[in-house]
């Protein structure tokens, strides 16, 4: 009887030890599983949106992207260039998520090639005459750009929205002769600004926003009846594999907050 009792006692003790071990093992496994899940979440790559954007929109687009990245936990990668260059790149690669350029006609050029979907409008990209501070040559009208002693910078009409629009303005006002005074045709409005501020020319036709806050330059507005306004347009790349997030981004760009940021950099927002 004593041997039986001792055997039962040791079996009970053994059962308790094994039970504790199992509980500890389960706890360890649960801890390891949770740690693995946390590690997976922490190293999970953020969704990346590729955005084609006109070079002249860089300041507001960078600020908008920063806010959107924080809000949606994504990464925005920009390709900034003139609208003509962007179209060539998109047509060549067929890849990307968002396309936003300085004028509706330039957006429609991409849409006509079935590269992008319908567009939304964001802000005005209004052309003006820009001179060095003090306007040394007293250039006050489009006609003054045609004077013999005036050197002019224009955008490349095949590469940028403002280049194409400038030629349309000259044609509208029968002032194509101004092309005889052109000393440079730059691919982007940013290049035009650099060239003018370094004294390469006396004036240029550029957008008001492109020189906003630049104390080295002076703006002379073109009479509305002689001008051709540009409207910034953007939309989703047709082949985007992240269309839902691209749609969220373009809607954020055209939201009240997005327009507020554009206004901060001299772009007049469009109204419904």
């Amino acid at each position: 009887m004593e041997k039986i009792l001792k055997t039962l006692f040791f079996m009970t003790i053994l059962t308790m030890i094994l039970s504790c071990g199992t509980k500890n093992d389960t706890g360890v496994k649960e801890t390891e599983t949770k740690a693995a899940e946390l590690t997976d979440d922490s190293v999970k790559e953020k969704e990346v949106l590729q955005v084609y954007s006109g070079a002249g929109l860089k300041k507001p687009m960078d600020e908008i992207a920063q806010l959107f990245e924080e809000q949606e936990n994504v990464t925005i990668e920009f390709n900034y260039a003139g609208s003509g260059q962007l179209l060539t790149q998109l047509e060549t690669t067929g890849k990307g998520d968002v396309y936003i350029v300085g004028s509706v006609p330039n957006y429609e050029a991409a849409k006509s090639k079935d590269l992008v979907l319908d567009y939304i409008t964001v802000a005005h990209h209004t052309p003006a005459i820009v001179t060095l501070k003090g306007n040394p040559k007293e250039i006050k009208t489009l006609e003054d750009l045609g004077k013999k002693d005036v050197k002019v910078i224009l955008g490349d009409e095949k590469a940028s929205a403002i280049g194409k629009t400038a030629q349309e303005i000259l044609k509208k006002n029968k002032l194509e002769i101004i092309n005889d005074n052109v000393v440079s045709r730059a691919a982007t409005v940013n290049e035009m600004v650099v060239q003018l501020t370094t004294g390469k020319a006396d004036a240029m036709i550029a957008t008001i926003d492109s020189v906003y806050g630049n104390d080295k330059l002076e703006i002379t507005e073109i009479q509305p009846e002689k001008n051709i306004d540009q409207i910034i347009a953007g939309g989703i790349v047709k082949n985007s594999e992240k269309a839902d997030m691209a749609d969220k981004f373009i809607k954020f760009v055209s939201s009240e907050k997005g327009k507020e940021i554009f206004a901060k950099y001299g772009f007049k927002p469009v109204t419904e």
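The beta strands are 47-54, 74-81, 98-101, 116-124, 127-132, 152-155, 182-186, 203-207, 217-221, 231-237. The first helix runs from residue 2 to 43.
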